[in-house]
Amino acid sequence: MNVVTARKRERGAGLFIVIILVAGLAALGVSLLTLTSMGPKMSGGLRSQEEAFNAAEAGFNTVHSLIKGYFSGGTWLNFDGHYLTQPSNIALPFISGAVNPSYFRRMTDEEILLALDPEKDGTANYAPLLAFQQTFATNESGATDTRLAYTAFLINDEAAGGAADPNDVLLVVIGVVRSGTRILASTRLEIVLQYVAGG
Questions:
Q1: Which segments within 30-136 are labelled E, that is strand?
Q2: Please, which residues have CB within 8 angstroms of residue 192's CB and are 6 or more apart in sequence?
Q3: What is the pTM of this model?
Q4: In whole numbers, what is the pLDDT of the chain averaged over residues?
Q5: Strand-strand pairing, 148-155 and 168-179
Q6: What is the pLDDT of residues 34-75, one digit of tens each?
């Protein structure tokens, strides 16, 4: 009897080990399938992020040249009056001592674009903007590539306090990649510009 009972226990233990091994291999297989299916998604996300950065960089180059033209042509004498102040006091981190949730650095790129165009009709409701959803590239057939665009505006870097200086400003450029109306990726550049007379 003891020999028969011992063999049954050995078989039960062996079956238990086989079940554990099969479950482990199944879990490993599912993990590998998940990992390999995520690769293309991650690659596509990285590509979209790079395209958004390129859109923001193209926007910066274009807008920077535009601003230089305004100064060299005498249209602008300084940055005063060219700052974006609305919607919702976008340049102020605090209003009456309370946190301003509409401060541009507390908002995502998509929230800023929606605040500028709440109707989503492609026309900004606020000014002054240097560019709004400006396309700049062409696709393979030579048509305008509406997937890539940039928005640019100036923020008074002294709006939160400090001595007023109309000769320097913060240029904000948001580059986006879209699929239809949905934003796939965005990148925001914030660059301090300073006007030096004669320079």
A1: 94-95, 98-99, 131-135
A2: 157, 168, 169, 170, 171
A3: 0.76
A4: 86
A5: antiparallel
A6: 666 666 655 556 788 999 999 999 999 999 999 999 999 999
Closest CA to 55 of 196, 177, 153, 163: 177
Q: Which single residue is written with the structure tokens 């209003």?
A: 95
- Quick one: DSSP state of residue 199? -
Residue 76 DSSP symbol: -
Buried-exposed string 163-196: b where 16+ CB fall within 10 A, e elsewhere = eeebeebbbbbbbbbbeeeebbbbbbbeeebebe
**CA 67 – CA 45 distance, rounded (Å):** 33
Please state the domain extents for the chain: 45-194
Q: Which two tokens stand for residue 10?
A: 């050995």
d(CA 108, CA 116): 13
Which structure tokens are listed for 172?
């904000």
Which one, of 123, 103, 121, lies nearest residue 112 by Cα? 103
